[in-house]
Amino acid sequence: MPVLVREGLFIGNINDAAEVISNGSSEITHVLSLLSSPFITFFSDWRRGFEIQTKEIEKVYKGEKRDPGNGSGNSNEEVPSHRGKLLYNLELVGADLKILRMAVPLRDMENENLLDYLDICLDFIERGRREGAILVHCFAGISRSASVVTAYLMKTERLSQEDALESLRQCSNCVCPNDGFLEQLKMFEEMGFKVDHASPLYKKFHLKILDFATFLVKLLPKLLVKILRLVSGTK
């Protein structure tokens, strides 16, 4: 069952989330899902025959200016035709469509960029606590959800990474963020409990995790254009 971390803030695993979503909860009004897939079909793929009623509110992609913390999302807003990486999916779920779920595509891998998702996650946690109570979950309730909740405690209570994680472990002793997430949480602390993309720390981190294959995919077309221009004699 979900574990209470602070008033209005719970942590759990996919079983806890499935129970809350399918049967409702007298306390939990919001769910933050941190899974490899942001789509609700992840639940039915995980448990055969498991069906959840949903109503999509919006999908937000990298570069779009939306705020999951203020409740003003509008799925009818015009969005760019060329979208980047999906940041989150916002939807109403459950039998009565009373639970607001934000799903963030986050893998439990050491080279996964947790920092780029922290702002939207922490804003949504704050919104969930303000409007009711929120369950933060991943698949096992050990690494991804623990990392985000730890970051939330760090920011709101001005705790070091070590102190925030220790405080969380007093509530749930199974939490254990992977080493890559721990490193990023330490950077989050050193950046003043915020994600500063202009910080040398962030830039160094981003270069470290940059996938070389993705880099080549982006670079090669530009190189080919330059080569073709040189061959043709155009500028």
UniProtKB/TrEMBL annotation:
It is an enzyme of class 3 (hydrolase). Residues 61-80 are annotated as: Disordered. CDD domains: DSP_DUSP12. InterPro entries: Dual-sp_phosphatase_cat-dom (IPR000340), Prot-tyrosine_phosphatase-like (IPR029021), Tyr_Pase_AS (IPR016130), Tyr_Pase_dom (IPR000387), TYR_PHOSPHATASE_DUAL_dom (IPR020422). Keywords: Hydrolase, Protein phosphatase. Signal peptide: none annotated. PANTHER family: DUAL SPECIFICITY PROTEIN PHOSPHATASE 12 (PTHR45848:SF4), DUAL SPECIFICITY PROTEIN PHOSPHATASE 12 FAMILY MEMBER (PTHR45848). GO terms for molecular function: protein tyrosine phosphatase activity; protein tyrosine/serine/threonine phosphatase activity. This is protein-tyrosine-phosphatase. It comes from the Eukaryota. Its EC number is 3.1.3.48. Residues 1-194 form the Tyrosine-protein phosphatase domain. Belongs to the protein-tyrosine phosphatase family. Non-receptor class dual specificity subfamily. Residues 112-170 form the Tyrosine specific protein phosphatases domain. Pfam families: DSPc. SMART domains: DSPc. It comes from Araucaria cunninghamii (Hoop pine).
